Amino acid sequence: xxxxxxxxxxxxxxxxxxxxxxxxxxxxxxxxxxxxxxxxxxxxxxxxxxxxxxxxxxxxxxxxxxxxxxxxxxxxxxxxxxxxxxxxxxxxxxxxxxxxxxxxxxxxxxxxxxxxxxxxxxxxxxxxxxxxxxxxxxxxxxxxxxxxxxxxxxxxxxxxxxxxxxxxxxxxxxxxxxxxxxxxxxxxxxxxxxxxxxx
Length: 199
Description:
Rna Polymerase Sigma Factor, Chain: A, Arc Repressor Mutant, subunit A
């Protein structure tokens, strides 16, 4: 499914126009995937200001590198890959960023999880689900970074295996294997916590 603006111009045409310096076409391309790129940055960076810094850096890099975009993947996938890489670079360079906390945001009532959709349950069901989500997320803190990463991309952000493969520059087999291991690891940790193996 490609990008098209209000005039019905397709993604390929927008990219070609943007490469020639058409700011409107570049803006249309960016706006088509900005929301999901923002959510990715926020999941990684946790702090909204840091996420905005990462996103701005990503779009600067995208603008500068647009001429080298060959169209061998979807434009939005390319944007998400750059966003992920910039977030990971920022996390490595600055010790104040902690990936394992990136699933949480600060609210008036403390920390809460962003972007886990519920299907409109009753209040008691919502509370039960929230408690389960909190337990699972506590267990996620114990996962290795590469396992947390694929859980975020697949189970929270909803990327396909193919998209994750492109985002992480890893083979499809590697991605599937890593996701399977991450889920198994998360289940093991969760069972240990539930059965009294943890605090």
